Amino acid sequence: MSQELQAPPVNAASEAAADPVDLANDPIPSFASLQAARGTVFRTRRSLDSFGMQIDALGREGEEGRRRGLGLWMVGRYEEAVEMLEAHSADDVASFTHANALMSLGRPAEAVGVFQRLSEAYADEPRPRAGWIEARLEAVLAETGDRDQAADAAAASCAEAPESFMASADGLYIQGRISELRRDRETAIDHYSAAREADPTHRRNLFRLAHLCERWGLDEQALEAYEGLAAIQPIDRKVLLNLGCLYEDLGRDQDAATCYDTVVRFDPTDRRARLYLEDARAGMDMYYDEDLERKEDRLNQILRIPITDFELSVRARNCLNKMSILTLGDLVTKTETELLSYKNFGETSLNEIKEILGSKALRLGMDREEAVDSISQVGDAPPAPSGATEVENTPLAELNLSIRARRAVESMGCLTAGDIARRHEEEFTTQPNFGTTSLQELRQKLSDLGLSLKTRS
User: Distance (Å, rounded) from C-alpha 102 to C-alpha 118?
Assistant: First the structure.
């Protein structure tokens, strides 16, 4: 769903003090001024923490409550912002911020009425009208799943809009959305590009342009759009990860590592960013131990296998899910004591876990070096399903996939060519950063082995 991106406070810049935003006293005449102030809040981690203290110091009623709600939106605490701003529907800045927070939460149907009122009150302003049209578009899409119906609803609203709106950055962006829904890729890119010329800071437009270009293999155009987004504070986590992947595809491993490191420094528990950072750093080494590289590659594949791929009791599965243990990589870092200290997790569940890890030559509480050494003791290829042919047993490492394609198949627990061939095409196209180019690559690699992906009839 297209929505305003929630932007985590990640910033690779120095922690120099930023000019503080006085949320309690500074004038907030418009939503545009709110967005401008948001950039200063995210300038450094110190400025963000200071602003968070300002928010928490404000009351929940009257003018303080309104300013508290605006501040909550600024730092991406959208659920709280919606709750706080609902009581201030008479204030247009609060209402517009409220509607944007609803869009960021994926609740467009609730935002439609707010945007419609504001678009009628400010007929010459493109932002409220664009918000109303996009909210309707997303609401129809969420309710029916019908891209054409959503496009028709948006087009009908555009037909009633003044020419000045259609020529604005917001109007061009909406036309891009309509063309994209109608699967007219070239026209969509033209509209998004024109919108970028009119307003290079339009976040949603830049993201749709980057995403569409990336899916169609137009990496240079995607890179330009993502770099434009990365230059705007606050920076979105998703943007940094996507930009890092593009840098790696272009052989710019140092730049990729910088993107991933920025995310990791903000949130050290971000597993995807940490794995990507390790890969990028490995790519920066000109010389490496090929045997160690092979073991590391296989270890990464195994550690990314989802816990849901194994047969576990309901109790064990629920406990692991509540502990945010989603993959073998999450599990192997835990100790027996940590697991047993969790409510309802007993010796029976612990023995189940040990058996799963033992089947992969792993155990609880291992560090990475131990895991790599242990992997070397169980042969080069993981066990294949009964009846698999030699071709199907071809390890993932031998397929020489691009970084983007390899990560997608690893995240789905595929370790061999046969594992990939047993999946449907649609399962891959829903993976992050996996577009038409990656799908064609998988098809070709499997075709070279006499295999193919499944397709739904």
Answer: 15
104-108: long-range contacts, CB 8 A cutoff, minimum separation 24: 104/3, 104/4, 104/5, 104/6, 104/76, 104/78, 105/3, 105/78, 105/79, 106/1, 106/3, 106/142, 108/1, 108/3, 108/134, 108/135, 108/136, 108/137, 108/138, 108/139, 108/142
Q: How far apart are CA 103 and CA 306, in angstroms?
A: 30
Closest to 353 in 3D by CA, of 381, 392, 325: 325
Interatomic CA distance for residues 333 and 316, integer angstroms: 17
Q: How many residues does the chain have?
A: 457
- Give phi and psi for 394, each to the nearest 5: -55, 120
Q: What is the C-alpha separation between 317 and 115, in angstroms, rounded?
A: 43
Residue 387 burial (CB count, 10 A): 7
Please provide the distance, in angstroms rounded to a whole number, between the alpha carbons at the two ends of the chain: 26
Whole-angstrom distance, CA of residue 90 vs CA of residue 86? 10
DSSP structure class, residue 382:
P
Residues 101, 97: Cα–Cα separation, whole Å: 6
Q: Domains, the chain, ranges and CATH?
A: 290-378 (1.10.150.20), 396-448 (1.10.150)
Q: Using CB atoms within 10 Å of the CB of residue 289, give its burial: 0 to 12 exposed, 13 to 18 middle, 19+ buried.
A: exposed
Instruction: Per residue of the chain (457 residues), give pLDDT as tens.
Output: 333 323 343 333 333 334 567 888 888 888 888 888 888 888 777 888 888 899 999 999 999 999 999 999 998 899 999 999 999 999 999 999 999 999 999 999 999 999 999 999 999 999 999 999 999 999 999 999 999 999 999 999 999 999 999 999 999 999 999 999 999 999 999 999 999 999 999 999 999 999 898 888 888 899 999 999 888 877 888 888 888 888 888 888 888 888 888 888 877 888 888 888 887 887 665 444 555 555 556 666 677 777 777 777 877 877 887 787 877 777 877 888 888 887 778 888 888 888 877 777 778 887 666 665 665 554 444 444 445 577 888 887 788 887 778 777 776 767 788 888 888 887 777 776 677 778 888 888 888 888 888 876 5
Nearest Cα residue to 43 out of 173, 281, 233: 233
Cα distance between residue 191 and residue 211, in whole Å: 14
